[in-house]
Amino acid sequence: QAVLIPDVIDVEAPEYLARDLVLLLFLEPDARCSRCSRASVPVHARYHRPAEGTQEALVVLESPEVLLCCCHRRLSAECWGPAEVDAPCSSNGAAPCQWHSPKHRPASEELVLRVPVGLREHSSLVCALTLLTTALCSGLIIAAACKYGHFS
C-alpha cells in the first residue's frame, strides 16, 4: 500500500520544473524476519538541461526515512517514547497516527544515478534537424491528405 503526496505528478516535467514529492509505503514485516521489510520503488529520471563538456548529470538518491507506527497493536521498544511524526495510518487516508523514527541501517551509503544529457554544443544541430524533420513529416501528411482525402 502506498500514498503519494501530491497525488498528481507531471512525470514529463523537466528536472528544473519538478516539485518534491513524498511517498509513504506501508510495509508488512517479512515472514522470515519480524524486524525486516523489503520494498522496491520504480524511479523515473527526469530530463535535464543540456550540459557543457559532460554527457551525464549526477542525481543523488537519499536514503529513505524509516518510520514505525505504534498502532495496530505492534508495540516495540521505540513506541514508549514521544511520537515524532504525524502521518496517515494507512493508504486509505484514515486519521493520522503517531509514528516513530527507529534507528535503522541503510542498504548502502549513497546512491548516485547517472542520467544521460545532451551536449550544449550540439543544440544548433539538434534544432536544425528537428525543424527539418518536422517540415518533411508535415509535408508528407499534407500530400497524403490531398491525394487520399475525400473533401466534400
From TrEMBL:
Transmembrane portions of the chain: 124-145
GO CC annotation terms, alphabetical: endoplasmic reticulum membrane
Name of the protein in its database record: Phosphatidylinositol-glycan biosynthesis class X protein
Organism, scientific name: Pomatostomus ruficeps (Chestnut-crowned babbler)
Cited InterPro entries: PIG-X/PBN1, PIGX
Pfam family of the protein (one): PIG-X
Domain of life: Eukaryota
Pathway: Glycolipid biosynthesis; glycosylphosphatidylinositol-anchor biosynthesis
Family: Belongs to the PIGX family.
Locations listed in the record: Endoplasmic reticulum membrane
An individual GO BP term: GPI anchor biosynthetic process
SMART domains referenced in this protein's UniProt entry, alphabetically: PIG-X (SM00780)
Membrane topology per record: Single-pass membrane protein
Main location: endoplasmic reticulum
Task of the protein: Stabilizing subunit of the glycosylphosphatidylinositol-mannosyltransferase I complex which catalyzes the transfer of the first mannose, via an alpha-1,4 bond from a dolichol-phosphate-mannose (Dol-P-Man) to the glucosaminyl acyl phosphatidylinositol (GlcN-(acyl)PI) intermediate to generate alpha-D-Man-(1->4)-alpha-D-GlcN-(1->6)-(1-radyl,2-acyl-sn-glycero-3-phospho)-2-acyl-inositol and participates in the sixth step of the glycosylphosphatidylinositol-anchor biosynthesis. Probably acts by stabilizing the mannosyltransferase PIGM.
Keyword Metal-binding: no
Keywords of the record: Endoplasmic reticulum, Glycoprotein, GPI-anchor biosynthesis, Membrane, Transmembrane, Transmembrane helix
Record flagged with keyword Transferase: no
